[in-house]
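Contributing new records

If you add data, match the layout below exactly. Sequence lines come first and carry their own label; structure lines follow with theirs. Keep one chain per record. Anything else will be rejected by the validation script.
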Amino acid sequence: MKPEPKKLLIITYYWPPAGGPGVQRWLKFVKYLPEFNIQPIVYIPENPTYPIIDKGLESEVSDKAIILKNKITEPYGFASFFGKNKTKKISSGIIPNQKKQSFLEKTLLWVRGNLFIPDARFLWVKPSVKYLKKYIEENNINTIVTSGPPHSLHLIGLQLKKDLNVTWFADFRDPWTTIGYHKALKLSNYASRKHKALEAAVLNSADTIIVTSKTTKTEFQALTSKPIEVITNGYDVEKIGKQPLDEKFTLAHIGSFLSERNPRILWKALNELVKENKDFKNDFQLKLIGAVSQEVLDAIMEFKLTDFVLNLGYVSHQGAIEHQRKSQVLLLIEINSEETKSIIPGKVFEYMVSERPIIALGPENSDFAEIITSTNTGVFFTYDEKEKLKALLLNYYELYQNNNLKVHAVGLQQYSRKNLTEQLVKHISK
């Protein structure tokens, strides 16, 4: 006789109809947890302010999951009165270049960093603790997971751990005080100390820390002696048929193209190829899918590439998968800084199973560079390798002309969502 399923309470902010990368991780874990005799109970806000909506993801929610909802008060709703578009961009991580910020943008960033600690969802902590304490006690739940960002959700776990002594797993999809945009929040000394104190409290109170990269694990090991497990993001089996390849030589960037991710060496290399190679000029197209910062668009214009751009804006997750599979080359761009070495963009795993070559740019010793290289799915460049980048672009173009631009990936199965869920279950079932 099959034993009773183990109950797992998952506290997360991002959930369908939220779009973007933040929702994918626990949506997919929840999909596969019942196969391992785990009953997922998902606690989410009833009235969230999501910067991106993708209703197509609602069909992916497991019918075996129990969904709990509780109202949230979000300051972004009030802040949008002063500038809805600017507020929406900042809440989704699109932070304007410091030199070009308006007074309103500077004010919003200062408020976000210094008054909303650790983030704009901090007002959800107390009502959530009250609601969940009652639910946990009434339903005999022993194990909880909090997923951040927003890192205020870890404060819910912190209080539940203190009050009920549940087994608590703190899942960090991104780092806390070392994440790239943290410096842009114009933090006062007090706010900076407060962030670090809260981070330390979470890291030293949770029973186990879960992170998505080796570098984040190393950073956190300097702050806590608690167990830290690396469970990356991954790819799922998508019900999408084979896509015909674009006729043009398309380079596609899918996802948010932030100001700090502006790869000037790529624009320069493409500018030179357009000037030097008439066939390349006729065949080349740059596809931008997702939110794109004005600084990126300005740089593209500066290098006289605007006429080659197809700017599609945000598309559904299914639409993004389709573009990944029919584009000739996929671009993966990360900010060139020490703080971003630990960032493994969630889309890298979907890129890897698209059977299209990846051109990746980022800081030296990036965690995602190792993944791309070991799976033979693309080529990684640092920001000072323009000539090598240009040579690869030309090589890929020549392969495209000969209908021979292909990828021969290896070792991808370890990154399947089902395999990753099995890893998770081994830890929470101990």
